[in-house]
């Protein structure tokens, strides 16, 4: 399985993804992330003869795309986890402001810690 880095941006009510394979840039837009992956796999098949079943993606989100794709996250709670002001996180989510590297690192660290906690959780039916 080939894993490619897919950079995802929020644009025009949908998502735009881009990657480079063998020095060839590939960019595509779609209304959803699963459709974006499908479209990019089609391009990889057309131009690079890569079978869709042989490719998977590592997602790299720009802030507006991330917050749009993961709307289940509460910005106020994320602010507590990251020690970043909720208003600033909302500005990142809307794209009116970009995080500096230290802020992006705090957000990523908090999300990975949350993901780890979720992976260890189970529901019990009583």
Overview of the structural elements:
By secondary structure, the chain is of the alpha+beta class. Helices cover 48% and strands 25% of the residues. It has a four-stranded mixed β-sheet with strand order 3-2-1-4. Strand 1 and strand 2 form a beta hairpin. The model has no long low-confidence stretch (mean pLDDT 93).
Relevant terms:
48% helix, alpha+beta, 126 residues, 5 helices, 4 strands, four-stranded mixed β-sheet, globular
Rounded to the nearest angstrom, the radius of gyration is 17 Å
Helix percent band: 40-55%
| Discrete helix count | 5
How many angstroms does the end-to-end distance come to? 41 Å
Low-confidence stretches: none
> Strand-and-helix sequence, N→C?
EEEHEHHHH
> How big a fraction of the residues is strand?
25-35%
Structural class: alpha+beta
Number of strands: 4
Q: Name the average pLDDT.
A: 93
Strand order of the largest sheet: 3-2-1-4
How would you describe the shape?
globular
Largest sheet: 4 strands, mixed
Could you write a compact summary of the structure shown?
With 126 residues, the chain is α+β, with helices and mostly antiparallel strands.
Strands, helices and their partners?
Blueprint: E1 2-11, E2 14-21, E3 24-30, H1 33-48, E4 55-61, H2 63-69, H3 75-82, H4 86-94, H5 101-120
Parallel strand pairs: 1-4
Antiparallel strand pairs: 1-2, 2-3
């Amino acid at each position: 399985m080939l894993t490619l880095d897919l950079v995802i941006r929020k644009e025009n009510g949908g998502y735009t993804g881009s990657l480079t394979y063998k020095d060839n840039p590939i960019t595509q837009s779609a209304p959803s992330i699963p459709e974006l992956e499908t479209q990019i796999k089609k391009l990889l098949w057309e131009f690079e003869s890569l079978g869709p079943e042989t490719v998977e993606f590592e997602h790299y989100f720009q802030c507006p795309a991330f917050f749009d794709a993961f709307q289940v996250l509460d910005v106020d709670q994320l602010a507590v986890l990251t020690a970043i002001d909720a208003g600033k996180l909302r500005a990142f989510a809307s794209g009116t402001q970009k995080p500096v590297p230290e802020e992006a690192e705090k957000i990523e660290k908090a999300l990975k810690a949350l993901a780890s906690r979720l992976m260890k959780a189970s529901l019990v039916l009583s």
